[in-house]
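Technical appendix A lists one of the benchmark inputs used to test multi-chain prediction within the project. The record comprises two sequence entries:
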Amino acid sequence: MSENEAAAAGPSQRSVEMGVAIATALLGVIIMLGSMDVGIGWGSEGPKSGFFPFYLGVIIVGSSVINLLDAARGPSDKRFADWSQLRQVVAIVIPTAFYVTVIPWAGIYVSSLILIAVFMMWLGSYRPLSAIGLATLIIVATYLTFEKWFLVPLPKGPVEDWLGL
Amino acid sequence: MEDIVNLFHGFAVVLQPYNILLMCIGILLGVIVGVLPGLGGANGVAILLPLTFSMSPTSAIIMLSCIYWGALFGGAITSILFNIPGEPWSVATTFDGHPMAQAGRAGEALTAAFTSSFVGALFAVIMITLVAPLVAKFALQFGPPEKFSVFFLAFCSFIGMGKEPPFKTIASMMIGFALAAVGLDSVTGQLRLTFGFTDLLNGFDFLVAVIGLFGIGEILLTMEEGLSFKGKSAGINPKVVLHTWLELPRYWMTSLRSCLIGCWMGISPAGATPASFMSYGIAKRVSPRGAHFGKGEIEGVVAPETAAHAAGTAALLPMLSLGVPGSPTAAVLLGGLLIWGLQPGPLLFVEQKDFVWGLIASMYLGNLAGLIIVLTCVPLFAAILRIPFSIIGPVILVFCAIGAYTVHNSSFDVVLMLIFGIAGYAMKKCNYPLAPMVLAIVLGDKAEEAFRQSLLASQGGLGVFFSNALVGSIMALGLIVLFLPLIQSAWTRMRGATAT
């Protein structure tokens, strides 16, 4: 029973909202500091470059504090999401993070092919052959559409060089 | 009169075979974008924008705006057949559309939805044809303070009229403005907020933000909810269409009311989603069959669809005539104008007549083509939704990545896209609105420029924003809208006090 409850539990909406408010407040502080670097006063050319963003930073910090207080007053029993749901989200974020970091080296076509095939096998339990086959088909169609039809070049890697594309 | 001549000239431009082809491609892509979860109008247009880089601006805007019309049509298909709103503005369509489909009247519901969409769009386009040139002519006299006041009004209405908590809207909007400020300062040419990172020299592109916030964020939400599609089959044939068309004129009053609500909400940046809900709510209250709403009443499909389409179309009016987009998708189209080297705003009507009137003409024809395409291809689009998410999900991810990369041919933008995606997911779950953030990123530079130029002229005095009747009244209107929630709650409290 308690194990089921633990499996269904998750972070509370209140703590996540407070986290987001703190994050926006930090962003506001960074913006204020960055603006002070370039000057927030009045120069010979009128308001300096940091003038406008500095006050944006002030407003962001101010509204974040209000949001933080609001969130702290919220109910503590409302859940943001179940851990199992968050696991699904993380399960898509990690491969995607890997995908976006390898694009500069492997090119967009090969990494996309692998991404699609892996997702199909893992989420949809397709057989490797059909997953790779369909992924290849999609990528070839994408290549023809972008490079040949609309003349938009996309990043390529060693495999494309080897194929002479 | 001159406008009519220009409009016919616009029709001639659109009716070139190449442009008609682009129009049909745009509609088809748009419906697909509208049908698929994780791909909305704004995000779909943003991803496909790079395809248009090599086209002439007129052909490009025809294709992109048709993607937008297609997305507006597409939302209705999933709402009615699958009870899953493909777009937020078609949520209200599920209330009566899906019960109709369950009762075996899917064909009727779809025909009613598409036809009402067309009527709503047509009404809004006629309004744009008549009003936009006048607004543009008027706006040509605007100086920096007036320009800033229009931006001010647009952003205040997000805060005052949005359903999200006002301080969350403010935080989201100001972060958008701050992101727009990163990089080269357009007034002094100085670098700012880059913290020494060379990747930040060019600042944040709003297209990358749109693709991340709306595209990746939406996929993460879909994953969390673990969607499974269980749809009704779509039986649509000429007999059903004709039968429904004969029935529809009975609801002319609902249609007209929904058109007006849609146009109003579309011009003010409230957008299509609140317009569809408001229209549905009013129709339910006013209709003699109001008690049956929610059980499959055709009027309950007509009202939200008409309003959503009218609002979606009307959102282009301020974009064209003032350079202030009324919705995130209109903002993406405006970003497209900048990329093609056009300066959005009232001058378009003077300097780019072909472009403006070509766009307006394509709104008429694009919606007509859209109506025909969706009525004939519904089964095809419904079949797309039956493709499992394990295939569609990664393909959408790949297209988002390609879209983000092609904006500046930069791999760093793809990384930013993912960061925006995660931020968008968290913000959406915490009820922060994303639309004001996107609009702020698009308009940030222009708003700041207008603000600083005004201050420069007045030597720093804020009085310049109240220096004449025009700018003063726009600013005052903005302030009233800004404090609308406070005014309303004070009013109800006062009435409550007198009642007891």
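Chain B has one domain: 2-499. The CA atoms of residues 145 and 454 of chain B lie 5 Å apart. Comparable benchmark entries are summarised in Table A2.
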